[in-house]
Specification:
This protein is α+β, with helices and mostly antiparallel strands. Helix content is about 25%, strand content about 35%. The protein has a single domain, classed as Nucleoside Triphosphate Pyrophosphohydrolase (Alpha-Beta Complex), CATH 3.90.79. The strands form three sheets. It has a two-stranded antiparallel sheet with strand order 1-6. The longest helix has 13 residues.
């Protein structure tokens, strides 16, 4: 079973995506990301309140510099985050939901190559 982890975060204006990945993992689960590379992008549009929005998820494949166990961490604003490891099969069998839409398919293609 291959482990996967997904975080939600944002990029600051003029911040490179690679730097945002490093920063988000450091902030959210207090780990340094080792070597990593882009696996793909997922884009979607939605219209809350009659206004068009576009969201882009940049998906990276990589490893942490040290072993990360499941546990708890805190956002910069103090909100608690629970970090757990789940295998891809849990999402394929519908036991858990993986966002954004299209991420499961992208991971399946990556794992089969």
């Amino acid at each position: 079973m291959k482990p996967f982890i997904a975080t939600r975060g944002g990029m600051s204006l003029r911040e490179a995506a690679r730097m945002a990945v490093r920063r988000e993992y450091e902030e959210e689960i207090n780990v340094d990301v080792g070597k990593f590379e882009i696996s793909g992008n997922i884009g979607k549009t939605y219209t809350p309140s009659m206004e068009l929005y576009h969201e882009i998820a940049m998906v990276y494949d990589g490893a942490f510099d040290r072993c990360m166990q499941a546990g708890f961490s805190r956002e910069a604003n103090g909100d608690e985050i629970r970090a757990i490891w789940k295998g891809l099969d849990e999402f394929e069998l519908g036991k858990s939901i993986l966002y954004p839409t299209g991420l499961l398919e992208l991971l399946q293609i990556k794992c089969n190559n």
